[in-house]
Design goal:
alpha+beta; globular
């Protein structure tokens, strides 16, 4: 059965969007997913299912999460290969980068026309490189003052959730 890695957007950030790991696991299992495992409390979950469509997996997880949490939880699901490809791209792109490196994981693959809108979205020293469903954000030393954020990525490319490079690499090694 296929394995998917799901990334939940905007959970555990404020008082009203708490969604603990145990509740995430319970929601996945009640929805029929197996071999459920989480990593950190930021919405990273591995599931196995007989479903063969990323869109169907995302829809099933979003319904299960909304039912369990009581609020919508946008979810980006990747195949193991997609996750490994994004991690490999990060190795290639980040070799000479000495600042902060984040990846915005995209719900849908963007078109070339929409990707070019990110070209001038950051300040000097900030770059976005989009490959597949990964928008690689090469930033300066301080993420919190960066102009090129996940919100900017979403404005131009649609629903996305952001993880730092260490999380992407760890999950690719662990679950890819």
């Amino acid at each position: 059965m296929p394995t998917y890695i799901a990334f939940l957007r905007a959970i555990n950030l404020g008082a009203n969007r708490k969604f603990p790991k145990a509740a995430i696991v319970r929601a996945c299992e009640e929805a029929g997913f197996t071999e459920v495992e989480t990593y950190l409390n930021t919405g990273n979950v591995r599931v196995t299912t007989s479903m063969r469509s990323v869109a169907k997996v995302e829809a099933a997880l979003e319904k299960a999460f909304a039912d369990e949490a009581g609020f919508d939880v946008p979810t980006i699901a990747l195949t193991q290969k997609e996750l490994c490809d994004i991690a490999a791209d990060a190795v290639e792109l980040g070799e000479e980068h000495d600042g902060r490196y984040y990846v915005s994981l995209l719900k849908k693959s963007p078109t070339g026309a929409t990707v070019t809108k990110l070209d001038d979205a950051g300040r000097a020293g900030e770059h976005a490189i989009v490959r597949g469903r990964g928008a690689h954000l090469l930033l300066g030393k301080d993420y919190h003052t960066a102009k090129l954020t996940n919100a900017v990525v979403e404005k131009h490319l649609g629903v996305a959730t952001n993880r730092n490079l260490n999380v992407i690499r760890t999950l690719a090694e662990k679950w890819g």
